[in-house]
């Protein structure tokens, strides 16, 4: 007869192995972060066509629009030898009230091993990560997190600046509704950077609601730009603003021209930055609202470099998830 203690250990043995997920940058420890960036650099410079993800099937489920994140994840998976399965969520059984959990379990039963999910709900992963048989990669959830964007931002900056220790990074725009800002606020101070946030009062939450890190502060835009090694501009995320009409009547963020002159990165403002200062933007860019159109192609703009690097960083992330990161 099997004793109770033996039953417990059998059950423990039979329980599913813990899945590796990437829900925010805190899921990656410092050692793995170093390996991830080293691997992305090797993929970038080596022109490699590895098959490290052969046998994996990567589904993409995007409940919000995307160009960069969805396509670079799909290309990254294909470049590593995985099969990709873009799920048209609007024509799936999710439209017949199937839960996301049941959809993911259904995909797993068909051999899908990883799911890249973007969703408008900040809490979409609550309770999913523990139960699903798939590895989950967060491609942006509500205002909460966009870890792969923060990782590719930090990778791009380390390629340009070397260490981020002691660097000043200004993030300006719609901080309140930005998952990119939240993930970067976790990652950049971890890498030794100081972060200054700027934006119109309607679009910046209390600092304590974002972070307790002493390396993060608010400052007026012109004062911040004078100190910046990096300026990261953020789009006004109107799709997340309360409807109808935003918080305070005809607020500056509802009028493009006055937004650019008051809170955006104009050519005049950028001319007052240090000569070595570089510009980031996660995209999509709304020209002449948060950033002057001419600055998008400025020699100091790394915006398309961020997009290029996103492919290599996401390749390394997929290898990390699969447990095959060298
Ligand atoms: N930065 C970003 O998430 O862009 P997409 O919405 O195009 O994926």
Question: How would you describe this protein?
Answer:
The protein is globular, with a radius of gyration of 21 Å. Helix content is 38%, strand content 13%. The chain contains 12 helices and 9 strands. The protein is an alpha/beta fold and 326 residues long. Helix 7 (179-190) links the parallel strand 5 (168-172) and strand 6 (194-198). It has helices at 4-14, 30-46, 68-79, 100-109, 128-131, 147-161, 179-190, 221-227, 256-263, 267-271, 293-296, 303-322; strands at 57-62, 83-87, 114-119, 135-141, 168-172, 194-198, 216-218, 230-233, 278-280. Phosphoric acid mono(formamide)ester is lined by residues 66-69, 140, 149, 282-284.
Helical fraction equals 25-40%
Specify the overall morphology.
globular
With helices defined by DSSP (H or I, 4 residues minimum), what is the helix count? 12
The strands making up the biggest β-sheet line up spatially as 7-6-5-8-9
- Main β-sheet description: 5 strands, parallel
Low-confidence stretches: 1-16, 245-249
Strand content: 5-15%
The H-and-E topology, N to C, reads as: HHEHEHEHEHEHEEHEHHEHH
Q: What does the average pLDDT come to?
A: 91
Q: Care to count the β-strands? A: 9
Class inferred from helices and paired strands = alpha/beta
Provide the list of bound ligands, each named once. phosphoric acid mono(formamide)ester
Tell me the radius of gyration.
21 Å
The first-to-last residue Cα distance is: 46 Å
């Amino acid at each position: 007869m099997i004793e109770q203690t033996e039953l417990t250990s059998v059950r423990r043995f039979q329980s599913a192995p813990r899945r590796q997920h990437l829900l925010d940058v805190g899921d990656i420890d410092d050692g793995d972060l170093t390996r991830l960036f080293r691997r992305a650099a090797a993929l970038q410079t080596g022109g490699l066509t590895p098959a490290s993800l052969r046998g994996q099937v990567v589904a993409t489920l995007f409940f919000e629009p995307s160009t960069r994140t969805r396509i670079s994840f799909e290309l990254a998976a294909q470049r590593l030898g995985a099969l990709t399965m873009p799920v048209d969520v609007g024509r799936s059984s999710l439209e017949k009230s199937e839960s996301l959990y049941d959809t993911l379990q259904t995909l797993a039963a068909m051999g899908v091993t990883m799911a890249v999910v973007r969703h408008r709900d900040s809490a979409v992963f609550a309770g999913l990560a523990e139960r699903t048989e798939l590895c989950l990669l967060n491609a942006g959830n509500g205002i909460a997190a966009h870890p792969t964007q923060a990782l590719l931002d930090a990778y791009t900056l380390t390629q340009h600046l070397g260490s981020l220790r002691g660097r000043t990074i200004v993030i300006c725009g719609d901080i309140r509704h930005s998952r990119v800002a939240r993930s970067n606020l976790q990652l950049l101070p971890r890498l030794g950077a100081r972060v200054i946030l700027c934006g119109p009062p309607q679009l910046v939450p209390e600092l304590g609601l974002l972070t307790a890190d002493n390396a993060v502060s608010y400052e007026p835009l012109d004062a911040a730009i004078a100190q910046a090694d990096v300026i990261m501009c953020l789009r006004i995320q109107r799709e997340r603003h309360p409807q109808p009409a935003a918080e305070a009547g005809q607020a500056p963020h509802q009028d493009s021209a006055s937004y650019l002159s008051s809170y955006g990165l104009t050519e005049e403002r950028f001319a007052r930055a240090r000569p070595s200062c570089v510009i980031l933007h996660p995209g999509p860019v709304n020209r002449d609202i948060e950033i002057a159109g001419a600055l998008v192609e400025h020699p100091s703009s790394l915006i398309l470099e961020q997009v290029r690097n996103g492919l290599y960083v996401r390749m390394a992330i997929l290898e990390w998830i699969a447990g095959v990161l060298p």
